Every structure is written in structure tokens, then in C-alpha cells.
Amino acid sequence: MKKISVLLCSLGLTCILAGCGREVELTEEENEIITEYAVSLLLKYDKNYNDHLVDLALLEEELDSETEEDTPSTEDAAPENNPQDTEPTTTEVVDATEEIQASSIEEFYGIQGFSFQYVGYDMTAQYPAMAENPEDAFFAMEATPGTQLLVLKFQAINQSGAEAELDMLRYGTKLKISVNGEASKNALSTMLLDDLQTYRGTVGAYELAELVAVVEVPTGTSVENLSLMLKNDTDSVTLVLQ
Length: 242
Fold this sequence. Notes:
The protein is an alpha+beta fold.
């Protein structure tokens, strides 16, 4: 339809020029100008015509944006799971102390001129007994409800033939007591003047000091066997008492 309109328009212009009374000869360039002008007039007044020219710059921008959206971002990419990273780490707890061979308290401590002997135990609700040592009432200790105090008794004998000082506190040794093969319990830290862990005093030649180690046990416990563990920062030893 558009081609027919263009042809008619060209013929009309030719007729107008011919009607002027003289024959006009047009060059090829002039014919193309007239034809393009006629076509533009027809398209301008054609209601069914729509301008489909596209801005190439805008088209390139749209294509670039679509390409960026389709390309996955390296920041959004899910990290790869490394099996080595998911393995749980374990920390091995190593006891720094070493069980050594020692047959007595003085051998473990390295005390010269003294020998230690276990001489038995007492089961009591309070130590020391108030009637026996009224001057020690300030340092007396009582068992908590449901328990009794198991008091292990020791003698530290000065065999040096001369007066000697005995300082147990400076060795920094901790005591643990096992009753009837059960798990060892820490000996109680006390203010007792005769506590084996903290005793400090002077012992005459061939004389002795009576020392104790105390632990709480359930009321009614019957003691069948006892063992004493001595432990410092580097060594430990377990002595069977009975």
C-alpha cells in the first residue's frame, strides 16, 4: 500500500511540473530528492505508521545490565566445604605429675633425719576434742551434717640426735586419702597446728611430733583399708596405710 502511495505521489509531482507549459528534465539526484520528500509526507500523515527507530546506545546499556544480572557474583557464591575444616579438634589433657617409687613419707619429701610412721585413725564429729586440748579450741573443726571426720594419725620422729626444725609447709605437697578403695579425696585444709600438710615446729633429739591428716566420710563408714597419696607439681606416690 505504501509503495502505491509513493508511486502516485511521484506521478502527481511530475504532472504538476509538466502542467507549467514546458517540459522539465530532472537529474537523477533531483528525482531522488523529490521521491524522498514525497515518501516523508505520506508517512507523516499515515495513522497506521509508528516510529520504530531505536536508540542504539540505550539498547547496548540494557544488554550490558542483563549480562551482569545473569553472571553470578563471586561474593554471593557459596563457599566450598572443606572436610578438614569441619573435623572437631580435641585437646588431650596430660597430667604433668609422674608416679614414682617411694616407700615412705620422708623418702618422697626428701627429709633427712626424720622418719614418719602411720599409727592409726580416729572417727569423730569434732577435732580436736575440747576436753583434751582446751587451748586448741580456736582451731577446732566440726564435721558437716551427714559426715564424720576421719583423722589419720602420724608420728614424725627426730632421729638425728640433735634438735631439728621440721617445716612441712615449704614442700608444697598435697594429700589425698582413699577409703575402702574408693576415689581419693583431698585432705581438708585446716588451721590445725598439727596438720601434716602445714606443720612447722622444732622437734628435740629422739623426740616426736604427732601430726594428722583429716578427711570427711559419710556417717557410719566402716574403714577396712586406707591409702594416702602424696602429690606435688612434678611427682606423686601412693602409700598403702592399712
